[in-house]
Amino acid sequence: MRDDPLYLEPRLDPRTAALLDSAPLLHTLVDALGSPLNVLLPDRTADNVRRFRAVLDHHRLAGRIFFAHKANRSSSLVRRLTTTDADIDVASLDELRHALGSGFTGSRIMATGPKDPAFLWLAVRGGACLNADGPAELERAAALVRAHGLPRVRVLLRLSGFETSGTRRLMRESRFGTPVKSLHRLLDVLARHRDELEPIGVGYHLDTTSLDEKAAALEGCLRAMEELRVHGFRPRVIDVGGGFGVNYLAYAAQWERWTTELTAAVMGSRPPLTRGGHGYGLRVENGTLKGGLSLYPAHRPTAGAAYLDELLSLPAPSLGRPLGTLLLESLYDLYVEPGRALADQSGLTLGRVLEVRPTDSGESTVRLAMNAGDVGLEDHGVLMDPVVLPRDPAPPGAQGPVGQVGPVGQVGPVGQVGPVGQVGPVAVHLMGNLCLEADLITRRTVFLPRPPRPGDLLAFANTAGYCMDFGATHAQQQPLARKVAVHEEAGRWRWCLDEEYWPFDRTGEPQG
Amino acid sequence: MRYDNITDAIGDTPLVRIDPEVHGLRHIDLYAKLEMLNPFGSLKDRAAWSMTRRELAGAKERGETIVELSSGNTAKALALIAGLHGLPFKSVTNRMRIPEIKDLLLLLGAEIEELPGRSECLDPTDTDDPLTLFHQRLSRPGGAHLHTDQYFNALNTEAHATGTGPEIIADLDGRAPDWFIACVGTAGSSTGVARALRAHDPAVRVVGLVGRKADFIPGIRTVDEVQEVGIFDPATYDTLEAVGADEAIDGMLTLLRRCGLLAGPTSGAAYFGGVRHLRALDAELTERRTAVFIVCDRVESYLDYVRQRRPDLLGRPPVKNSVATLTDTEVRSAAVVDVEDAQKWIAAQRPLVIDLRGPFAYAALHIDGSVNIVDELFEELLRGGLPFGKRQPVLLACPVGEKSARYAALLTRMGHPDVRSLAGGIIAWRDAGAPLVRD
């Protein structure tokens, strides 16, 4: 068992799996548009919206589902969402412009995060809801409304620092939001600006995977709503933010085995699993394991809409009844802001294999026509194997004619992978195309079921949430990934450039 | 047996033979070391006392707080010892998942700090876990803490090397058992007992049991988590095997129902994992051998743990007059009344208006004159029969009119002639602009 390849196979929904089965199409796209290439599946994002809506319906809650735009820069996702009942949450001036330009009206937009003057101005001007960070921001928004005679702006108060009863919960400090203890400061501003600001509710956005912490925060919001009522406001929304998570891997057992082997490698009881023995946050001191595993929990039994369902089903720490029941009974609407979870299975990133170089350690180095910024799995601590899409569909091991590999001419010699004739699993290290020692697609030794060859594509599945373009830059003037949007129509894949995508077909009819 | 102090009652726990009929081993005598009979209820009494006894006087003088990273039994024992000696006690943990123990600790006067969960948006440059940061805070000069540090404290191990281990040998008439089976938490008991037994007879085999990774068994660490324990040394164990939560509960049931031992899930894991390990060896044996496992604590605190994983074990007979027994037809035929008619009906007939929502929501806004009976209480109330006369008309209200329709159907089945449900519930009432009050 110990020597079996330590696969971390990605979870693929049927649509993504079907797309990966269409390797010739993907090769054609990369041939035409270059490597790396991002492929978006906007229909899947719409499916994810329905899943979240089903959870709200199940709890009989009214509410809104906001796509957190920062998870992906794609136009196709945003434009597709305009046709669903989703709203959008934007965190910069350009995201706001993009949302407006894609067809979202101000009533369906929420502005979150740090706001510079231009962003705040356009948000208030456009009638977006403000997710307000603190009293100063409320003052600035009120001043804009007054100075320009604008309609009252809807505001949600972002709160933090929730108290727990019984046991004290130490929380990670957040830069954002107003501590619940200082709620009175927000109320003072609101009281002075009743004509300019319309507080529709309160919310939180906690950076944690812990349901208990979120339950404490949600209960804190219920109490804060009472405060607002006592002060004569009519709030009716609680915003529980995002952080519902994604399950990236197909098999829990692979994840558990890999993390255990990593622990063993850090402890020195097996060979390293990573380049340079990197421990992903773990280290040894005096024979004892220290540090924390700085990896995304890549296999999660409960993620996305199911996580929200679990949160709503959880009893409130001190009020006792399930949180969903309390929201419903209090006649409150629920806002959620999933980014990663709404983009789940909504896109993949393709990179062409440029060179496969055997090393003395027996593990090959695979150089890709992409870099670590193009597929930010490592940056976000997500470990997941790429899927090999052979250039040559001939049976593995058969040598394809060299001249047929790729139109760009980046052809490495074939047959250099591992021992001669090796066709089974191989251990490889994935390198990027930057002239930097640090440009590793992943620090992990990746096991692939067959040796990749120059011209093959490696498909990184499920990158649409934060891993696709979040860190992509023009460093060293390597090309940035182009984006295409694909959808299925009458059993065939249709594709267009991401910026050419609109949610109707070329005849103007809604997509079939 | 007369003691001057409850801490004198720590140790000297019984060693009880498990009936071979139960475990089915033919050549191995299996004994349970009943550590749950320690005065504070667990094996950890020994470690807690061992780590504090020499420190208490000084700590009192310096006004220190006893601090431990513990999610359960160690904290319980330390809290009681701290209380006995007039010291405060604080527990810090990210593993406290047993609500009964949390509440018990609060009752004992402990202060509990829970560590935050994992970050959803990782900062890969932040590689220090919360525990490390906590340790750094504790070791800052000027802090008035007595940090017992069970995962690294040699006195934890020593308690078992000088107590638990020798007691087992004494009770086996001066022989060490052939196998010693222990679950690995702090590794203190397994390491200490193993040391004592092997000093007596180097041939003793030590079986360490860890939790399966995806599962959670209170008090046991997983195969990765044991690496974080300073006392843990893989060389202590001849084998490390994993036990799942379900198996632990199965083992616990055997101890409870067939052995008369009020043992908790960790003990169940020790029994289950022990018997599983020994069964294969038993078949090859021709002479008698002995094995000992630890029953480390009692079952009472783990009822919620069992309820979550195996609710069938706590099954209750169906109750009378339950909404769960209603048919769809009954629910559909419940009398409903829309907001406008309800307002007229209230004005004309003065029905009893019952709001089935929780008191928190009711207090914020409700229909004037309504009474609040939370659905859970209402359900209980109905088990005994109708809680109001049949001539009293009743209007039931819930958030969306779904629950109230079910209760209206149930009351109708129970013989009430005029009970109606507010269609669309309080939300429809609000949306129609009908008055809601808070008083």
UniProtKB/TrEMBL annotation, chain A:
InterPro entries reported for this sequence: Ala_racemase/Decarboxylase_C, De-COase2_CS, De-COase2_N, PLP-binding_barrel
MF term (GO), any: diaminopimelate decarboxylase activity
Give one GO biological process term: lysine biosynthetic process via diaminopimelate
Pfam families, alphabetized: Orn_Arg_deC_N
Q: Write down what this protein is called.
A: Y4yA family PLP-dependent enzyme
Keywords, sorted A to Z: Pyridoxal phosphate
Q: Does the UniProt entry include the keyword Cell membrane?
A: no
Domain named Orn/DAP/Arg decarboxylase 2 N-terminal is located at 51-261
- Give the residue spans that cross the bilayer: none
UniProt xrefs under PANTHER family: DIAMINOPIMELATE DECARBOXYLASE, GROUP IV DECARBOXYLASE
From TrEMBL, chain B:
Nucleotide-binding recorded as keyword: no
Q: Which GO terms describe its biological process?
A: alpha-amino acid metabolic process
Query: Which cofactors are named for this entry?
Result: pyridoxal 5'-phosphate
Q: What does the UniProt keyword field contain?
A: Pyridoxal phosphate
Residue span, Rhodanese domain:
347-438
Recorded hits in PROSITE patterns, A to Z, give: RHODANESE_3
InterPro entries under this entry? Cys_Synth/Cystath_Beta-Synth, Rhodanese-like_dom, Rhodanese-like_dom_sf, TrpB-like_PALP, TrpB-like_PALP_sf
Q: Which domain of life is it from?
A: Bacteria
Q: What protein name applies here?
A: Pyridoxal-phosphate dependent enzyme
Specify the species: Streptomyces phaeolivaceus
* High-level lineage: Bacteria, Bacillati, Actinomycetota, Actinomycetes, Kitasatosporales
